[in-house]
Specification:
The complex is a heterodimer. Chain A contains seven helices and seven strands; from the N terminus they run βαββββαβαααααβ. By secondary structure, chain A is of the alpha/beta class. Chain A has a single domain (3-210), classed as Pyruvate-ferredoxin Oxidoreductase, domain 3, CATH 3.40.920. In chain A, helix 1 (16-32) crosses helix 5 (170-181) and helix 5 packs across helix 7. By secondary structure, chain B is α/β, with parallel strands linked by helices. Chain B folds into five domains: 10-33 and 571-597, no CATH class; 34-48 and 507-563, Alpha-Beta Plaits, CATH 3.30.70; 50-130 and 454-500, Alpha-helical ferredoxin (Fumarate Reductase Iron-sulfur Protein, Chain B, domain 2), CATH 1.10.1060; 141-234 and 381-440, FAD/NAD(P)-binding domain; 237-378, FAD/NAD(P)-binding domain. Chain B has helices at residues 50-54, 61-69, 73-83, 87-93, 97-101, 113-125, 149-160, 177-180, 189-201, 218-222, 253-261, 279-290, 311-319, 414-417, 422-440, 477-480, 493-500, 514-518, 546-550, 580-597, and strands spanning 40-44, 141-145, 164-168, 205-207, 226-229, 235-236, 250-252, 271-275, 295-299, 323-325, 328-336, 339-347, 366-369, 372-375, 379-380, 404-406, 409-411, 524-526, 534-536, 556-560. In chain B, the strands form six sheets. A six-stranded mixed β-sheet of chain B has the order 4-3-2-5-17-16, covered by helices on one side. Chain B has a five-stranded parallel β-sheet with strand order 7-14-8-9-10. In chain B, strands 11-12-13 form a three-stranded antiparallel β-sheet, with no helix packed on it. In chain B, strand 11 (328-336) and strand 12 (339-347) form a beta hairpin. In chain B, helix 2 (61-69) packs antiparallel against helix 3 (73-83) and helix 6 crosses helix 17. The model of chain B is unreliable at 15-20 (pLDDT under 50). The chains are: A alpha/beta, B alpha/beta. Chain A binds chain B through residues 11, 44-45, 51-53, 55, 64, 66, 68-70, 72-74, 83-85, 87-92, 94-95, 107, 109, 113-114, 116-117, 119, 146-147, 150-151, and chain B through 17-19, 36-40, 542-545, 558, 560-562, 565, 567-572, 574-575, 577-578, 586, 589-590, 593-594, 597.
């Protein structure tokens, strides 16, 4: 049975759209491949607070998905962190089936450095690092750094929003998820995302660390 | 938020929407650890103020200005004395590179650091006892050649470490350049003598009338555990023009000043030509004016603005009645019967900065009648006593980056780096003394670390009012001529405190409490109000950056959170869909959905 739960973690206001685009694009692309999909934006975290933790969900299945009214992913096996410090902020692999989690992080740091921050390494199959902020089309980056972005005390959510989905930082992350997990094909992503060049850069830009505890030792 | 006294029905005591349990009185704010909102962490990192960085002697200028603000003069004096053995002297004669570097110079006026230093020095010198504490006495003997700023600085630092230090000086009175290069009206002899007495009180022995090469040989130096050469530049450069060998009336600037200070005064005529454009030439002009010179000419081949003397020094030439003749080359010294009668000059085109660039203008030759010629075009080192292999091609002592010449013989100051400022010699002497200490203890010499010097754009200038610099008063011109009274006057206490209060404390926490007051999350804490006692509660700090923005001195900086392995806040409040009320709701939903789907 093909069934995946994707949870995307991000920060309120400042990177809300990026997370929405990642989950939404993956769900849409999978739908083009004939799968059953769901995408849900989460509102329980009060997402209108700058910098607070926010989740977006997607589910992809080859059968009808029965959780129609329950929007939280109970057993996420693919976790995307739009911003690197989220790795210290929450236990994002709780209820992930042991040894099956794929964690995709937007960071310029190496997976070896990031590994120490994982809440429960035994749940993780592989850790995927991609420097999406650098790989993204820089014309979409309207602030120099995340810190400056988080200094936007005006909370003008949507004022800098663009109509396309799958652009900016989201695009390389979408590519990284597709390359690391294979849940969607790049051909179907091309029909969905706005910046497919950046998606391809994300596919090539991933740095993967397999869980050393799970790598089979040759006899 | 408290629920004390409120009846909560049992079914509402479960986690609300799977996010956060209801807060209780005893746990309070610990239920909302907002620290996981943070992408950057505010960190207190003191940076190097530009004044400290620019001071060749490494004085902790921001530190003592901060103490003067609180009128802690004794602590401030003790802090200067860590790096500077004689703040009274540098407070008077230093060309203060610290003030040139001062960030306040880009805002209104640089802090009058040398005036505050002089105030503290005079304060310290008036105390009955010195504040310097010596370490336990050690048996090693160290010889110091030369009692100039480099030699006395090295001797002072070595004596503080407990070494047995002897300074050898060729002249009858110690002080080197501080005595021979500084006229009475710049640095009174009384002050210098008192500072030398302070050094003697530390156990440093002074042996005068002892020249290296004549009274002490190179091999004698090796009989000591270590030696330091601070021989300086004592030979005067010659002009190399016809008539320079006239026996009566041709003098050299440094010798002229030194003889005056060592009790061998010269008498000069009414018309004096001072040749040279440096700071020494300025001092010679000023001294000649006081010794009865009526027409004292300051003759240099550079334009006046290009002459190497500092602008404020050149201003003094005009103020005290010297006659500046720039773009002028002296071709010959005229004499009659072994007595100077005049000089033959020619004008040159402006723009020349070194002698080889001089372009004379034909037809501008002239003759000026003078009684005396004082040549002041620089000095060079007398290295006749130093073995050939330890000299450079430029006539200086060959020392490595640690100041080592040969074995445990070290050198520093003008004789190593070329002509420089007094503070440069003091700093170099201090560094060499530190390395002598390392050498005698078998330590590895430490390599310098490039510091993080803070620029004005990292300060929050909204917190600083524009406030003019407290001017340094001077003795009126009428009282100066014909007397040797000190020209620059000292700050009084109020002026020193007012000037210190202008200091930005660039890059250094001065316990202003701004971060503590402004933090919207009560996440900045302190045990007491002083640098080093502030800390950030990482459980609650949201990384909003208000403290960093509001820090006036720029000592707080934003560091990416992932640089730290601590401060992890695992919010365990998500995914509660299978337990509690949500779990029950989920089961009910599945029953309904199942019926519908079936």
């Amino acid at each position: 049975m093909f069934y995946h739960e994707i949870t995307v973690w991000t920060r309120g206001i400042i990177m809300d759209k990026e997370a929405r685009d990642v989950a939404n694009s993956l769900a849409q692309a999978a739908r083009l491949e004939g799968r059953y999909t769901q995408f849900i934006s989460d509102y329980v975290d009060a997402p209108d607070r700058t910098n607070c933790l926010i989740r977006k969900y997607a589910r992809i299945s080859d059968e009808d998905i029965k959780f129609r009214f329950i929007y939280e992913n109970a057993h996420p096996d693919i976790v995307v962190l739009i911003e690197e410090t989220l790795i210290k902020a929450v236990n994002f692999t709780r209820n992930t089936p042991p040894g099956e989690g794929v964690v995709v992080i937007n960071t310029h740091r190496s997976p070896e450095y990031i590994w120490r921050f994982l809440p429960d390494p035994s749940k993780v199959k592989k850790l995927v690092c991609v420097d999406a902020t650098t790989l993204a089309s820089q014309s979409w980056i309207y602030e120099e750094s995340l810190y400056e972005l988080s200094q936007d005390r005006m909370s003008t959510e949507g004022s800098a929003e663009r109509k396309q989905i799958g652009i900016g930082v989201a695009a390389p992350l979408i590519g990284a998820v597709a390359a690391a997990t294979g849940i969607v094909k790049l051909d179907s992503l091309e029909k969905v995302v706005g910046d497919f060049d950046a998606v391809k850069r994300g596919v090539e830009g991933i740095v993967v660390k397999e869980n050393p505890a799970l790598v089979a030792v040759p006899a | 938020m408290s629920t004390k006294g409120t009846h909560i029905p049992e079914h509402l005591k479960v986690p609300f929407a799977g996010v956060t349990p209801a807060p209780r009185q005893e746990t309070g704010q610990t239920l909302f650890p907002t620290g996981n909102w943070r992408t950057v962490r505010p960190v207190y990192r003191d940076k190097k103020p530009p004044c400290n960085h620019a001071c060749p002697a490494g004085e902790r200028i921001q530190g003592y200005l901060d103490l003067v603000k609180d009128k802690k003069y004794l602590e401030a004096y003790a802090l200067i004395k860590e790096d500077m053995p004689f703040p009274t002297i540098t407070g008077r004669v230093c060309y203060h590179p610290c003030e040139t570097a001062c960030n306040r110079g880009d805002y209104d006026d640089a802090i009058g650091i040398h005036c505050v230093e002089r105030f503290l020095g005079d304060y310290g010198l008036s105390l009955p006892n010195d504040v310097v504490k010596l370490k336990a006495a050690r048996p090693e003997r160290v010889a110091v050649i030369g009692s100039g700023p480099a030699g006395m600085s090295a001797a002072y630092q070595l004596a503080r470490e407990g070494y047995q230090v002897t300074i050898f000086e060729g002249q009858p009175k110690p002080g080197g350049l501080l005595r021979g290069g500084m006229p009475e009206f710049v640095l009174p002899e009384e002050i210098l003598d008192k500072e030398i007495d302070r050094l003697k009180a530390l156990g440093i022995k002074f042996e005068c009338n002892k020249w290296l090469g004549k009274d002490i040989t190179w091999d004698d130096l090796k009989s000591y555990d270590a030696a330091f050469l601070g021989v300086g530049l004592i030979k005067c450069r010659k002009l190399n023009v016809p008539g320079e060998d006239t026996p009566n009336g041709v003098r050299y600037g440094q010798d002229f000043l030194t003889d005056e200070a060592q009790g061998r005064p010269h008498s000069i005529g009414k018309r004096v030509a001072v040749i040279g454009g440096g700071n020494t030439a300025v001092d010679v002009v000023r001294l000649a004016r006081r010794k009865g010179g009526e027409l004292v000419m300051f003759i240099c081949f550079e334009s006046e603005v290009d002459a190497p003397a500092l602008p404020e020094e050149k201003h003094l030439v005009h103020e005290e009645g010297g006659t500046v003749m720039d773009n002028t080359v002296v071709k010959e010294i005229l004499s009659e019967g072994g007595k100077v009668t005049g000089i033959r000059i020619v004008k040159c085109k402006p723009g020349a900065k070194i002698p080889s660039e001089i372009e004379e203008i034909p037809g501008t030759e002239d003759t000026i009648a003078v009684d005396d010629v004082i040549v002041s075009i620089g000095q060079y080192a007398d290295l006749s006593a130093i073995p050939e292999q330890f000299r450079t091609e430029r006539g200086l002592i060959k020392a490595d980056q640690y100041g080592r010449v040969d074995g445990n013989i070290f050198a520093a100051g003008d004789a190593v780096q070329g002509a420089g400022m007094v503070v440069q010699a003091v700093g170099a002497g201090h560094k060499a003394a530190t390395n002598i200490h390392h050498a005698l203890n078998g330590h590895v010499f430490p390599d310098p670390v490039e510091p993080d010097v803070i620029k004005i754009d990292r300060l929050n200038l909204n917190y600083f009012r524009h406030f003019p610099r407290v001017p340094q008063r001077q003795v009126p011109l009428a009282e100066r001529m014909g007397s040797y009274v000190e020209v620059n006057l000292a700050y009084n206490e109020d002026e020193a405190v007012a000037e210190a209060n202008r200091c930005f404390s660039c890059g250094t926490c001065n316990a202003c409490d701004n971060c503590y007051i402004f933090c919207p999350d009560v996440s900045i804490m302190r045990t007491e109000r002083r640098n080093g006692s502030y800390f950030v509660r990482t459980d609650y700090c949201k990384g909003c950056g208000v403290c960093i923005k509001e820090c006036p001195t720029g000592c707080l900086e934003a560091v990416p959170e992932l640089e730290f392995t601590d401060g992890v806040i695992r919010m365990e409040t998500a995914f509660a869909t299978e337990i509690g009320a949500h779990g029950r709701q989920r089961e009910e939903l599945f029953e309904v959905i199942g019926e519908v789907l079936d």
